[in-house]
Write a structure and sequence with these properties.
148 residues; mainly alpha; globular
């Protein structure tokens, strides 16, 4: 349920604010929530906090990523480029699953997998700052124009 509302809100925000800054917050919060999860003690309250933050930004990265793709490559090439983005995402997901499996097999714990995934999300958050000109967090922007 949090995913549904997070994605809808992200689309709305992506039309009104700098998508690079939105990605900064989404990846940063995702990273912090992944680092937090192993320490949530799997209690109802602890898992609820994780579900709230992780759920809200589970697919929330798609609207700003698509917005940046359209702005950078144009509408004619955006579908092709976003297809490559999606393919790269699947390769990353497969690598993460392999890494988590190796962590569990070799170390008998998923803790390193959560820490690495969280750290990579924080690195990704920092990398988003390179995507667009610096203009302050959540600087308003002009909406994308549709049509000819």
């Amino acid at each position: 349920m949090f995913d549904f509302f997070g994605t809808i809100a992200s689309g709305w925000l992506s039309d009104r604010y700098n998508p690079g800054r939105l990605l900064f917050w989404y990846y940063g919060l995702r990273g912090l929530s992944l680092i937090y999860l192993p320490f949530a003690d799997f209690t109802y309250a602890g898992l609820s906090v994780f579900a709230l933050f992780y759920g809200l930004d589970w697919i929330a990265t798609v609207p700003p990523t698509l917005s940046i793709t359209i702005k950078t490559f144009g509408r004619d090439k955006a579908n092709l480029v976003f297809g490559w983005v999606f393919a790269a995402h699947q390769m990353g997901a497969a690598s993460a699953a392999l890494g988590a499996g190796l962590s569990r097999t070799e170390l008998a714990t998923y803790l390193p997998a959560f820490m690495v995934a969280g750290a990579l999300c924080i690195v990704a958050a920092g990398a988003t700052l390179l995507l667009t000109p610096l203009g302050g967090a959540l600087a308003p922007r002009a909406p994308l124009r549709t049509g000819a």
